[in-house]
Amino acid sequence: MKIGIAQINPVIGDFPGNAKRILAAYRECIENGADLVLTPELSLVGYPPRDLVFKSQFVPKCLQALDYLADETREAPLLVGYVDHNHPTRKGKPFRNAVAWLENGEIKHRIFKTLLPTYDVFDERRYFEAAEDNKAIEWNGKRIGLTICEDIWTEDYLKRPFYNHDPVEGLCAHGIDLLLNLSASPFHLGKPLQRRAMIAGIAHKAKVPVVYCNTVGANDQLIFDGHSLVAGCNGRIAIQLPGFSEQCGVVDPFLSVEDDVELNAPDIAQLHQALVLGLRDYVAKCGFDSVCLGLSGGIDSALTAAIAAGALGGDKVHGLTMPSQYSSKGSIDDSMTLAEKLGIRCNEVAIGPAFEAIKQSMGPIFEGRPEDVTEENMQARLRGLLLMALSNKENHLLLTTGNKSELAVGYCTIYGDMNGGLAVISDLPKTKVFELARWINRDEEIIPWNTINKPPSAELRPDQKDQDTLPEYEVLDAILELYVEHHMSADEIIERGHDESTVRWIQRRVDLNEWKRHQAAPGLRVTSKAFGIGRRMPIAQRFVG
Q: Which terminus of the chain, N or C, has fewer Cβ atoms within 10 Å?
């Protein structure tokens, strides 16, 4: 038996387009000898559809597209993820996360998801009712267990058991020869290896092959890496499709496998691939053709520009360098050098005259008061104004360039450098920004080495350096990881040897700046806990801990 794996990139709510993608992959797999073709979770819908499912025509149009796909299938079954109605006589949520078994022009079977994740970035119990049971399907002389994503993420693989039963154990108890999983498992650093270990463990424990089809592409803040795979009954990885691109593969899961195939890229390469894919899909799926951004000569804007050029091509990226009286000539030169190396357009517009005009306008109100962060923010907001003007005039998507470290402690200006439609590196700690920039330069200088090596500075006052205000980034990022990603209290972090005053300053800054993050552009998630969709903190609160 040969199984076709259709690792596709759906667009949420684009039922005609998604149906075409599914059919093209189905036919490609059949041409390559597949007897059955597997697509990802909610492949006809796109994941996650969120509150679109409540629109009156969303599910009916989904079912209409499903009928179309059924009409196009022949003897080789096609397994499609979709949203179904809950039965009107049943209690519970109105919809089901489902998979349809399409064969010879008909919907032969409908299987519903059993475990509905409602944690971190997931909110499925808001919409879906869980299946009460899941029975194997007999086909081609085999008993096939069919599962959807979370159905295989049970207590052995989560930090704590979220569920009272294990769908895989239930299927195995009744006897299966093959386990299939349709998945939409989002990426973060380390996730592909975690999945490999999990699926290999399931195959070894159940003593059946496991075929895992994961979606690929980016939807808003979530990036899906693909990396679909097959594990033999001995737990060895027989095949793994390349990550971060649409792929089709055909494999016989019952063939003997002696050695694991290797994962195709190290973490830092996966990080770059994820950000490139995330930006490219956000731009395309939101209907844009090009982007713009501010180029300061600093590492954050340089890295963002490099990712944008890699995602869209240099001709689709427009940079603007906006010097003030505090900008060094080196920063302007670095911006222009970067633009030349990336093949992007870059214009220079000085903000000095406008800055002086605003100060003069506010002079009667501010008279007798020294310059402070107010004047620094004026400069950032002037730059934000110019970038938004460029975005509006040329219909570019404006990219923000702030990193996770700065966003965490509020070292950024609302309505200034936070202006934009997508925050490309907002989930990258500053130390990871440097690491990725050096990786991009591994073979040749793309980002000017001067940009990477010079001390970071916002250049909003004379001789300003980031570390005038912030702890060293290695210290800041280490504490932020413990506080934000691992939810540790200040006391617990201090017990690990970190300076008490530094820890409490960081804690206070993170908590105080929640209001800024609520107004920030959506950011691409690449760590296990990003600001945004997976972290829901109140703004008005007084808890300290």
A: C
What is d(CA 114, CA 128) in angstroms, rounded to the nearest whole number?
10
Query: Whole-angstrom Cα distance, residue 362 to residue 373?
Result: 15
Parallel, antiparallel, or unpaired: how do β-strands 397-400 and 422-423 relate? Answer: parallel
Starting from the edge strand earliest in sequence, which strands make up the sheet with 345-348, in order?
345-348, 317-321, 291-294, 397-400, 422-423
Using one digit for the tens of pLDDT, what is the confidence trace for 470-519? 899 999 999 999 999 999 999 999 999 999 999 999 999 999 999 999 99
- The per-residue pLDDT for 362 is 95
Phi, psi of 7 (to 5 degrees): -85, 95
Q: Which amino acid, residue 169?
A: E
What is the Cα–Cα distance from 253 to 237, expressed in whole angstroms? 10
Q: Which 3 state secondary structure label does DSSP give 434?
A: helix
Give the model confidence (pLDDT) of 61-79 as tens digits.
999 999 999 999 999 999 9
Q: What angle do CA 536, 224, 61 make, to 5 degrees?
A: 90
Domains of the chain (ranges; CATH) run 3-258 (3.60.110.10), 272-470+513-518 (3.40.50.620)
Alpha-carbon radius of gyration of the chain: 26
| C-alpha distances out from residue 234 to 101, 132, 142, 219, 336, Å | 27, 30, 18, 35, 56
394 is catalytic: no
- Whether 200 and 237 have beta carbons less than 8 Å apart is answered as yes
Residue 391 CA to residue 399 CA, distance in Å, equals: 10
Q: Which is catalytic among the residues 149, 233, 292, 412?
A: 149
Residue 379 phi, psi dihedral angles, 5° rounding: -65, -45
Residue 51 has pLDDT above 70, yes or no: yes
Residue 128 CA from chain centroid, whole number:
23
SS3 assignment, position 180: strand
- Catalytic option among 41, 150, 406, 481: 41
How far is the CA of 154 from the CAs of 76, 143, 266, 513, in angstroms? 31, 22, 26, 36
Sign of CA dihedral 249, 255, 261, 263: positive
Q: What is the pTM of this model?
A: 0.94
User: What residue has token string 């399409």?
Assistant: 102
| 124 has catalytic annotation | no
Closest CA to 449 of 282, 288, 337, 305: 337
Size of the chain in residues: 545
Name 190's Cβ contacts closer than 8 Å, sequence gap at least 6.
267, 528
**229 CB-side CA count, 13 A:** 28
Measured between its terminal Cα atoms, the distance across the chain in Å is 56
Is the Cβ–Cβ distance between 527 and 485 less than 8 Å? yes
Q: What is the structure's pLDDT at 163?
A: 82
**pLDDT value for 159:** 64
**Strand partners of residue 3:** 36, 251
**Whose CA is closest to 150, among 262, 47, 278?**
47
Q: What is the pLDDT of residue 545?
A: 80
Among candidate residues 113, 316, 404, 430, the one labeled active-site is 113
| Whether residue 113 lies in the annotated active site | yes
